[in-house]
Structures are given as C-alpha cells and as structure tokens.
Design a protein that fits this description.
This protein has a single domain, classed as Nuclear Transport Factor 2, Chain: A (Roll). Helix content is 31%, strand content 42%. It has helices at 2-29, 33-40, 58-68, and strands spanning 41-49, 54-57, 73-86, 89-100, 119-131, 134-142, 147-148.
C-alpha cells in the first residue's frame, strides 16, 4: 500500500511539473508576461541558453529576452513536439515557428529582403526544473538555424 501511495504522489508531481512546463510555452505564445511573472517563473529563476552562452536571472530578465527575440521573425509561437517528465523535471522538444522579416540566419537581415514573409521554424529543447509550483531553472538547447518552410 505504501508503494502505491508513493507512486500516486510521484505521478501527481510529474503531472504538476508537466502542466507548469507546458504553461511556459502557452504564456509565451499568448504574450501573457504578467502570468509568466506571477504564476510560472519563481522569483529566483535562472535560464541558461546554450546557443547564446548566457544565463538569465529573474523573471524580468527572462521576460525581456523573450520579448526581444522576435527580431526578424514575427508571430512566433512554440509548438510542443515531444515531452518527457520525471518528478520535478520536464524536457520539452519544441518547434518555434513564425514568419520571416528578412533572413533570420543572415548577419545583416536587412540585406536579405527575399526572405520577407516566408514561414520559418527552429527546433529547440527546453529542460525545466520545478519547485513549489514554479520554474526555478530552465536550460535551452538550440542550433539557432531557422529553417525555411515550403
């Protein structure tokens, strides 16, 4: 009986972790910055980006980075491709899609107007650690190469 209760508790924790990890993408897609700030990200959250080699600290810094990532890709949204959850950690394989405003892979996007208006996608992976109902750590892995879609 104890092992069943332990399994139920562990399952409940994993489901909570899954919901919180998914809520990050949902709130980002909806540009619900206040929701990210107050309900999803812990006050001491850290976010490490492998592609940018940068550690963001605190909700404000992370939200600011999310708000500025549109650059040459507009109407971005995160689509969940796959997920693995165990205890307080979740790994979400994501596909970020949007519309190019210039070539998102060029050094000088303004010099590449042929890419204007084309759909693009970027594959990425986020690893979340959740404590007390909020994300306390996020690690992102991305090749940073936007792929043009047909």
């Amino acid at each position: 009986m104890c092992s069943k209760k332990g399994s139920t508790t562990q399952m409940s924790q994993a489901e909570d972790t899954r919901a919180i990890a998914r809520s990050y993408s949902e709130a980002t897609n909806a540009k619900e910055w206040d929701r990210l700030r107050s309900e999803i990200l812990a006050p001491n959250v850290e976010a490490w980006s492998h592609s940018a080699q940068h550690m963001g600290r605190g909700p404000e810094e992370i939200i600011s980075a999310l708000q500025h990532t549109t650059g040459v890709v507009r109407n971005t949204r995160m689509e969940i491709v796959n997920e693995v959850v165990d205890g307080d950690q979740a790994v979400l394989e994501l596909r970020i899609v949007g519309i190019a405003h210039g070539d998102p892979n060029a050094k000088d996007a303004a010099a590449t107007p042929a890419a204007e208006g084309r759909p693009v996608a970027l594959s990425t992976c986020h690893v979340y650690r959740v404590q007390q109902g909020k994300i306390v750590h996020l690690t992102t892995y991305s090749d940073r190469t936007w792929r043009f879609q047909s």
